[in-house]
């Protein structure tokens, strides 16, 4: 379905409810620049660090698109686990897994309390930004502890700049991108208002510090477009 969630007046903060879940795949492709390319990079790096029967977790898996693609492109068995606290998203994910014939263990659980041990790979695409800063650092430490030695964490985030001028320019470029995807000024404004104080982005430097403080030995940016970035961290 086509994303028209913000064509009407929004009177609540953004949440991953049925309205959003029903159009989420379209929303991702039209709201996140180079989303498909980012997903392909994630899968490419992932497959180079995985072996048969390894455990892979996607935190905030939404409709399970990344795990489904990983399952399709892997030529060996993987234990794929998707975790999300939105029942609407997981209902969509379940239907997609069945349609593509990919076996994924979908869990409706809280990322901060559920267990994901013995992981070789943990993915988190545009999820951390929705977690409050104090809890975010606790989650990163939990992710570190859950990974095997030399395990990897791949995550994507919307980011901000410490430079006010560059930050404003980045936002303007991003809004121009959204207009090219068919979103109106009104829709862009409505979504921005709904996400205020819900989506809290970090700078590249803050993301790096958070990762290294948790104990990871390596942090690297593998993709960047203005104010969107994909990172890889190695335990």
Automatic annotation (TrEMBL):
Source species: Malaciobacter molluscorum LMG 25693
From which domain of life does this come? Bacteria
Q: Which family does the UniProt entry place this protein in?
A: Belongs to the class I-like SAM-binding methyltransferase superfamily. Cx-SAM synthase family.
Q: Which PANTHER family match?
A: CARBOXY-S-ADENOSYL-L-METHIONINE SYNTHASE, TRANS-ACONITATE 2-METHYLTRANSFERASE-RELATED
Q: Which residues form the Methyltransferase domain?
A: 56-151
Q: Name one GO molecular function term.
A: carboxyl- or carbamoyltransferase activity
Protein name as catalogued: Carboxy-S-adenosyl-L-methionine synthase
Top EC class of this enzyme: transferase
Gene3D superfamilies associated with the record: Vaccinia Virus protein VP39 (3.40.50.150)
Which keywords annotate this record?
A: S-adenosyl-L-methionine, Transferase
């Amino acid at each position: 379905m086509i994303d028209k969630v913000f064509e009407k007046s929004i009177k609540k903060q953004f949440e991953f409810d049925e309205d959003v879940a029903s159009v989420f795949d379209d929303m991702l492709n039209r709201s996140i620049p180079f989303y498909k390319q980012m997903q392909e990079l994630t899968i490419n790096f992932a497959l180079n660090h995985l072996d048969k029967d390894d455990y892979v977790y996607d935190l905030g898996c939404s409709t399970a698109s990344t795990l489904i693609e990983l399952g399709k492109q892997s030529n060996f068995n993987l234990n794929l686990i998707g975790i999300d606290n939105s029942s609407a998203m997981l209902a969509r994910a379940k239907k997609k897994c069945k349609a593509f014939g990919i076996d994924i263990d979908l869990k409706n659980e809280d990322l901060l309390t559920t267990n994901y041990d013995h992981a070789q790979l943990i993915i988190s695409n545009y999820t951390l930004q929705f977690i409050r800063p104090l809890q975010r650092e606790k989650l990163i430490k939990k992710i570190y502890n859950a990974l095997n030695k030399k395990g990897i964490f791949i995550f994507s985030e919307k980011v901000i700049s410490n430079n006010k001028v560059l930050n404003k320019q980045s936002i303007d470029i991003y809004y121009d991108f959204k207009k090219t995807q068919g979103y109106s000024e009104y829709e862009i404004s409505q979504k921005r208002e709904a996400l205020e104080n819900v989506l809290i982005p970090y700078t590249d430097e803050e993301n790096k510090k958070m990762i290294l403080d948790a104990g990871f030995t390596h942090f690297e940016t593998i993709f960047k477009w203005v104010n969107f970035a994909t990172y890889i961290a190695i335990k």
